[in-house]
Structures are given as C-alpha cells and as structure tokens.
Design goal:
By secondary structure, this protein is mostly helical. It has a single domain, classed as Up-down Bundle (Growth Hormone, Chain: A), CATH 1.20.1250.20. It is 73% helix and 0% strand. The longest helix is centred in the C-terminal third of the chain and has 34 residues. It is globular and about 55 Å long. The two termini are 39 Å apart.
Length: 426
C-alpha cells in the first residue's frame, strides 16, 4: 500500500509500484552512515521484516476462533480492522515522512508493529486481537509508503522504475512468507498462537537497530503535521481509472479472502487441518504474484491488464471447483493461475494510471486507486456475514461470481477504450 501524497515538483519517473513516483523525492547530500549499496540492502531487509508481520495471523484465525469461540464472521471483521488501520495511514498520514523524515517514520512504523505484536502475544480476549490488527494496518501503511520512497531515493543507479518494481515484489514476497512461517509454528511448535509472535518480536528488535543505521534522504524536513487527504481523479482519465481501480479491488478481494479465510476453507470444506499447508497455499498465491510481476514486467500496461484479468477468471473457477469437489489439486492450480493474474493485473493497472494521470494530479489519483483497492475488506466481511446465514461454500461461490462479473466488465471496458483510441487516431 502506498503512503500516499507528495508535492508536485518532487515526482520522478513512472514506477510499477505504489510509491516509486509520487512521493517527495528530496535527497540530501549528507554523509551516509553506511555505504549506499549496503544501505539499500538494509532498507530492503527492514521493509521485508515489517511486511512479514502483516500476514502472520493468517493460519492462526482458526485457532483463535476455537480459543475465543467466535463465529466465522469475526475472522473477517478482524481482517477488516487491519484495513481500517491501513486506510487511516493512507488517507491521513500519507505525507508524514515528507515532513518529518524517512527514518523517524520508519522507526514509528516498526514501533507500532512491535506494539501490535505484543498485543497478540498477551491477548486475553478478541478485542486485543482487533486492536492488534488495527495497529498492524497502521504500521503497514506508514512502513510501505516510507520504505518505497526511500528505495526510490537510495537506488544505486537512480532507477526509480526498478526501485518501484522491487518494492512491490518485496511487499508481495514478504506477505507470502508470513503465512508460511506462522503455519509452520502453528503446526509444529508449542503455544502456536503466541510463540510465533515472540519470534517476530525478536525480528522487529533487530529491525529497529537496522533502521538506526539508515541514511536520511529528506533534507531539512519542515516538521509540519499535515492531515489533509488528497484524493482525486482527473476528468480526462476516468475511462482508464475506474476499470483499473475496479480490477484492483477484485484482485485485492481475492488476496484478502485467501489471507483471512484460507485455513477455514481448507479445514471446513476440504477437511484438511494442517495449518502449515494452509499457510503454504496462501504463500503460493502471493509468491506467484510476485514472481509473475518480476518476470513479466516488460509487458505493456494494456497487455498486463488484459492477460492478468483473463487469467484471474479461470483461477477463480478452479479455486471454486476445488472447494465444491473437495479437490485440493484444483484449488492449488487455481491459486497459481490467480496469483499470476493478480501480479500482472496489479502492475498493469497501476502503470496505466501513471500513464494517463496529469503530472500535477498523479499523487491524488494513485492514492485514490489504493483507497478503492483497500475497500476489498468490505466484500470479505460480506462473505463472513453471508456464511452465517448460508454456508461458507455458498458465500464463496457468490463472491466468486460477483468478482467474475466485475472482471468481465473491466475487460470489456478496456477493449472498448482501446477501440475508441484506435478509432480516434484514424
């Protein structure tokens, strides 16, 4: 997720990731405590470590459900708490690192992640988990935007496009690693809902030390506390923005649904109680998206959107077939195909918005894009509510049909826009 908003004069390039080209890119010439390449590698490690914790709870929801005896809908509400924190960071704290510096904001983000993790370790009731998820989302919003801006500023070759791509790949890869690590702890270690967070606290302690040796790219921050959201869509870009934003909403919904309910699906529908396997399935989805983005970044934004949207459809179908028939191979195949589609669609949609956004409106449009994508928690909560009155399988089928319809409409809009563009050039 993007940290959000910039000053118009500070944009450089059109990256493939949330924040590579729309944050304040002021770079200081001060002496760096560590060499440039080392600082860059340290920053990647800090970013990956921070993001890792956002998906650690994924295999643990079913255990918390048994421990605190709450319904399945509460799982989706807990996940929505994360999104509330993320949106708060996106809307109101998007320019914090521009005004106070990258390093202090990174310290704040990692500190919030520490508090969130401590709440999971000490949790005595569901409210502790909800507050922990909210703080986790707030930390993730601050961390992702700030780290992305710093990666663009500190790139050894000054290539903001490559830095943006690396930001997104690191983000998706770390989000995929989180469920795998937590699943292994949950399946094979004692105190499965606590020990993994103790382990993660140790990682965060090291991360805090690493942040301390990073250079500060923002020269003389003004320390002005600005909470004004800046969202908007240029009238000339509506035809591109809305199909791209709706596509992002669809793929974010798919990723969120997996992150929130994959273990519940596997245990309740496929009768597979292995939490390491559940975490591995979620890891496959995020990791496949990251790899596809990395390997196919040379595609034009149009082809990436087109191929990504098309691949999401059979991916969704195979996932649902796997659940209906209790066929794990079908579920796994659908996960891989949907992951590839998600990676392509993500980079294609964001690149398309970067291309059509007027320079003075780019920050507002990219932020608006991520706000729309972040609304994915609403349909995920809807699945939980519907499952209370029907079944988890029926709710999942309904959502899959809705996503398929929206994807078909966005693909039709993409083809219509291309035809209109070609007709206008004749």
């Amino acid at each position: 997720m993007s940290e959000g908003h910039d000053r118009p004069q500070s944009r450089t390039g059109a990256g493939q990731a949330p924040c590579s080209d729309h944050l304040d890119m002021r770079v200081t010439e001060q002496h760096h405590p560590v060499p440039h390449l080392q600082a860059y590698l340290v920053l990647i490690g800090v970013f990956a470590a921070g993001v890792l914790g956002t998906t650690l709870p994924t295999p643990l929801y079913v255990l918390w459900q048994e421990q605190y005896r709450f319904p399945a809908v509460m799982i989706t509400i807990l996940f929505a708490g994360y999104t509330v924190g993320l949106l708060t960071a996106l809307l109101f704290f998007g320019r914090l690192s521009d005004h106070f510096g990258r390093r202090p904001t990174l310290l704040l983000a990692v500190g919030l992640a520490c508090v969130s993790t401590l709440l999971f370790v000490l949790a005595q009731q569901v409210l502790w988990l909800l507050v922990g998820r909210l703080l986790s989302g707030l930390a993730a919003g601050l961390l992702t935007g700030t780290a992305a801006a710093s990666l663009a500023e500190l790139h050894p070759a000054g290539n903001t496009r490559q830095a943006g791509r690396l930001t997104t790949v690191t983000n998706l890869g770390a989000m995929g690693l989180g469920p795998l690590v937590a699943g292994l702890f949950a399946q094979f270690a004692p105190a499965p809902t606590r020990l993994v967070f103790v382990f993660y606290l140790l990682i965060l302690a090291v991360t805090l030390l690493l942040v301390g040796v990073l250079p500060e790219p923002v020269e003389a921050p003004d320390r002005v506390f600005d909470l004004r959201p800046r969202l908007g869509v240029a009238s000339s870009a509506h035809a591109v923005f809305w199909p791209a934003a709706v596509t992002a909403l669809c793929l974010s919904t798919l990723l969120d649904l997996f992150a929130a309910l994959a273990p519940t699906f596997l245990r309740g529908i496929l009768h597979e109680p292995n939490l390491a396997l559940a975490g591995g399935v979620v890891c496959v989805l995020f990791s496949t998206a990251a790899v596809s983005l990395l390997l196919m970044h040379g595609l034009t934004s149009r082809r990436a959107r087109l191929f990504g949207g098309i691949l999401l459809l059979p991916g969704l179908a195979l996932i649902e077939v796997g659940m209906v028939l209790s066929a794990f191979p079908s579920l796994l195949a659908g996960t891989v195909i949907a992951g590839v589609g998600a990676g392509l669609a993500y980079t294609g949609c964001l690149a398309a918005i970067n291309q059509v956004a007027p320079p003075e409106r780019k920050a507002e449009m990219v932020s608006a894009y991520f706000v729309v994508a972040s609304l994915s928690s609403l349909p995920v909560v809807g699945v939980g509510v519907l499952a209370q009155h029907t079944s988890l399988l029926a709710a999942s089928l309904f959502l899959a049909l809705l996503l398929a319809l929206l994807l078909l409409l966005t693909l039709a809009a993409l083809l219509w826009f291309d035809r209109r563009e070609r007709g206008g050039k004749r």
